[in-house]
Structures are given as structure tokens and as C-alpha cells.
Specification:
- α2 (about 65-75) crosses α9.
- The chain has one domain (about 15-250): 3-Layer(aba) Sandwich (Rossmann fold), CATH 3.40.50.300.
- The radius of gyration is 21 Å and the shape is globular.
- With about 280 residues, it is α/β, with parallel strands linked by helices.
- It is built from 10 helices and 5 strands.
- Strands 2-3-1-4-5 form a 5-stranded parallel beta sheet, sandwiched between helices.
Length: about 280
């Protein structure tokens, strides 16, 4: 009997059982779905701005899993004033002197905005754990701290979506090779990427434990099969738009009638030469 294939969105899933090769029919299907989902994403952003809502999208995953490509398509149609993408690397400066969650408190979304974290506080139980940048006691404690942190944000009205694109080891090797061969992608390669290349099993174990311990009712993990980039981008946008729109009126916000009247009167005066010279 073959192994059970778990669907994206199950939480917590077994990474070893995820079918990473799921795909769309063709490019036309991809472009059609992408256009519709990006329009919905824009409607959601406008609704969140008008209603003062806040949202956080967390993107984690192994190197070359396609996180950047997903994020680019997610924000492509949005107003840059209402969304902020935070690429997270090693802590710098005085960040090293504080609790590891300190720098994320500084990056939480304001009312009416969406924050996207390209890597996140989960670095404590992933790269910091694997590279030995913190003690075992510290990363073991972090599961509880992260759950409490996300619960606090949720209780304060922040919607949290956590995405983990999953690829196979063979696919990662192919993408590493492409980065090396393509002059326009070499900038993505770092010494850390090369080191991590040989630590696949360590990262799979750490990510599985992360899913098991931090996929909660208020902030569940969503695993996305990501060997096929088009499929991964569409699935990510579907998950995000469904989660952000749930129980939210995303119809186009109407302009205050008094403000509309004042604007029309001003426009009428301008068009009839009554404005200031």
C-alpha cells in the first residue's frame, strides 16, 4: 500500500507525506487565477485600510523553496503604503542585546496595514537551533513563547497566516544549480545557503517539530506543495485571500457623503474657473 498523501493546509502535516509535485493545467490557467486573486488581494487591502484592520503573513521554508516569488506575486497589485515586506536576516546592532522577539515587536503592522515576514521569529527554532546560535534550552522554550506571542496578537485583533512552501531535496538541488548558472540569480547565493545545502535532514526535522508544536487554532501552519512554482503561488494566494477575507466585508468602501459633496463642489468651482490663481 502506498503512503498517504496529505493535502496542503492540513495542520500539522507530516512533511514526508506532502506531494510536492502538484501542478496547474497550463500557463493560461495560472495567469487567469493569478489575475483574479491579485484583484481580490487589492480589495482586501482596501477593506483592511478602511476598517483599520491588521494582518501578518509569515513565510518560512527551506532555501530555494520559492518564498520570494510568492511574496512578489502577493504584493504586486497592492498599494505600497498599506503593506510592508520585512526580509529577516541575522539580528544586528542593539537587537542582539534584547530578547529575540524584540525586533519583531518593532515591525508589527499599524492599523489598516499588512506586514509580510520573509522569514520570521521562527528562526529561533530553525536556523538558530541548527547553527547553534542559541542554547537547546532557549530554542525548546521558544515554542511556548511563540505560541503566546501569536495568541497575544490574535487577541488584539491581528489576523495571522503562516505559510510553509515545501519542496523535495532533488528540486532544491536543481534550483541551487540554476542560481549558480544564472547571472541574474547569483546574488541570492550566500555562504549560509551553501552550508545549509548539506543540512537537509536537520532542517526537515526542525520544520516538522515547528509544525507539531506551533500550529495552533489561532495561527495554524499551511503547508504548500512547491516543486511547481505556478501552483505554489496560486495556492499561497488562495490561502491568504480566504483567510484575510473570512468574516470581513471586502466590498469597495463608499466615500462619506458629506466629503463627496464637498469634493464635487470644489471640483465644480475649479472647472468653472473659480479656483485660486
Amino acid at each position: 500500500m502506498g503512503k498517504k498523501v496529505e493535502k496542503a493546509g492540513d495542520a500539522p502535516v507530516r512533511l514526508a507525506n506532502v506531494d510536492c509535485n502538484q501542478s496547474l493545467k497550463d500557463k493560461d490557467e495560472y495567469k487567469s487565477l493569478l489575475e483574479a486573486l491579485q484583484l481580490k488581494m487589492l480589495q482586501i487591502q482596501q477593506a483592511y485600510y478602511a476598517q483599520g484592520r491588521r494582518a501578518i503573513i509569515v513565510m518560512e521554508g527551506i532555501d530555494c523553496a520559492g518564498k520570494g516569488g510568492i511574496i512578489r506575486r502577493m504584493v504586486q497589485s497592492l498599494d505600497v503604503r498599506g503593506v510592508h515586506v520585512w526580509p529577516i536576516g541575522a539580528p544586528a546592532g542593539d537587537e542582539r542585546q534584547h530578547h529575540y522577539l524584540y525586533r519583531f515587536w518593532q515591525r508589527l503592522p499599524e492599523a489598516g496595514s499588512i506586514a509580510i515576514f520573509d522569514r520570521s521569529w521562527y528562526g529561533r527554532v530553525l536556523v538558530e537551533r541548527i547553527e547553534g546560535f542559541c542554547t537547546e534550552q532557549a530554542w525548546q522554550r521558544a515554542y511556548r513563547e511563540i505560541n503566546e506571542f501569536e495568541r497575544l496578537l490574535f487577541d488584539d485583533g491581528v489576523r495571522i497566516i503562516k505559510l510553509l512552501p515545501a519542496i523535495t531535496r532533488d528540486e532544491q538541488v536543481k534550483r541551487f544549480e540554476e542560481r549558480i548558472q544564472n547571472p541574474h540569480k547569483r546574488w541570492k547565493m550566500t555562504a549560509e545557503d551553501v552550508r545549509n545545502w548539506h543540512r537537509w535532514d536537520d532542517y526537515q526535522q526542525a520544520m516538522q517539530q515547528m509544525l507539531d508544536k506551533t500550529s495552533t487554532e489561532v495561527a495554524p501552519w499551511q503547508v504548500i506543495p512547491a516543486n511547481r512554482k505556478w501552483y505554489a503561488r496560486i495556492q499561497a494566494l488562495k490561502i491568504v485571500t480566504d483567510a484575510l477575507a473570512r468574516d470581513v466585508d471586502i466590498s469597495m468602501p463608499s466615500l462619506d457623503s458629506a466629503l463627496m459633496q464637498e469634493a464635487m463642489e470644489l471640483l465644480h468651482r475649479e472647472l468653472n474657473g473659480g479656483g485660486d490663481s
